Amino acid sequence: MGKYGYLKMNTDPAATELIASDFKELGHAAKKLANHAIMLGSLGLGTSILKWIAFAAAVYLLILDRTNWRTNMLTALLIPYIFLSLPSLLFNFISGEVGKWIAFIGVILRLFFPRHVPEWGVLPGSLILLIVVAPSLFADTIRNNWIGVAICLGIGCYLLQEHIRASGGFRNSFTKSHGISNTVGIIILLVYPVWALITDIL
To answer: 138-148 as b/e, with b when 16 or more CB fall inside 10 Å?
Structure first.
């Protein structure tokens, strides 16, 4: 039998240390990536939850007796806020066939039976019409962009300052009739766009 020759591998200690440090850096990078993914996922979830809460607060303020507001202009500003902050699940549902039928019936009632249409149904009917007929620039682009969030923030700030001015000060805005519910509702309207803008910057 022949002799088998074995090759001796010369391992450089410096090369081994470099490879080990590379693997450590890869481990740290993987951990950072996982942490950032979890953080962004939780931020996105927080934005979605706040969007639903803001939508509920806007609907609540819309349902409240309009005599609690100084002008119908203030109540009407809730319509574009709801349009821009409406969660995508509801927006897609209303902008489909269901919303078209509701808008169609609403228009027929307004045309032929105007005395039977309640006063409180005008603004919700306008919201349905707005959702159904909105061009894609508003329905898809601005709604899902920082521009829509900035508009919501502007509406919330304007409503809050008008409510405080009409109440005679920030402290009085909590003491008057429906003051706490109105003030808290408007503050909730501000929380969603502020959070959405912060997470968008991050």
So the answer is: bbeebbeeeeb
